[in-house]
Amino acid sequence: MKEKKAWVLNGYLAVVVVLASLIGGTALLIQTQFTLGIALILIGVVLSSGIVVIQPNKSYVITFFGSYIGTIREPGLWLTIPLSTRKSVSLRVRNFNSKTLKVNDVEGNPIEIAAVIVFRVVDTAKAIFDVDRYEQFVEIQSETALRHVTSRYPYDNFEKDGYSLRGHSEEVARELSLELQERLKVAGVEVMEARLTHLAYSTEIAGAMLQRQQANAILDARQIIVEGAMGMVQMAVERLETNNVVQLDEERKAAMINNLLVAIVSDRSAQPVINTGTLY
Fold this sequence. Notes:
By secondary structure, the protein is an alpha+beta fold. Helices cover 47% and strands 22% of the residues. The protein has 3 domains: 9-90, no CATH class; 94-201, Tetrahydropterin Synthase, Chain A (2-Layer Sandwich); 223-265. It contains 7 helices and 10 strands. The longest helix is centred in the last third of the chain and has 40 residues, at 203-242. The radius of gyration is 38 Å and the shape is rod-shaped.
């Protein structure tokens, strides 16, 4: 079912007509013209049941004896079909903060994750008639989509190949928004944004995973240091040979390279050793 515009008239004019009917009917009753007086009063009462006040960013879904008549979105005072049933639907932008869920990532590691969903109703007919309590529907589908998206990716990608939940939050949030929109369009809801608000390893493996992250960080740092040291040593040897500062045979060159690498790569300050003899 799709939303459509309901039949409405100016509410202020309706108020004038209702007051005139009630006053006129009362005056006729006083004059003992009971039939016409009662008829005017009934007309006024029936018309008053169709007067509705619409606040900004609110709407009313109008049904008449089980049939969907339409939706009133424009704020103001309106007269719609008398004796109809009206259900209020908010058009405001709302947030939904999911509970912290315990989910397994694609590698089977238990993690804790939560998200905030920003949404609004764009089709009031679907929100009222196609699902039962659309707000609860949004909550359940948001948690389901979050679990599904989380199970596709690892928490952290130590091999630096592909997406991970920790390293690619923007991409994960974009995929979560797309999946949520697909799930919630049946309820006439537009997903404006979806963001992860909490992401952590579960307590039972948090310590082990922290040690793994620290180890990988140390290895990455060591790799950078070694690569830089090799470049510096190569540059030093090439300059010595180019400028004819000293002529080094293979054995002395190997010794100098070893000393330079130890001095550069070592965590502690190198202690110089003065050689007063010879290698031979």
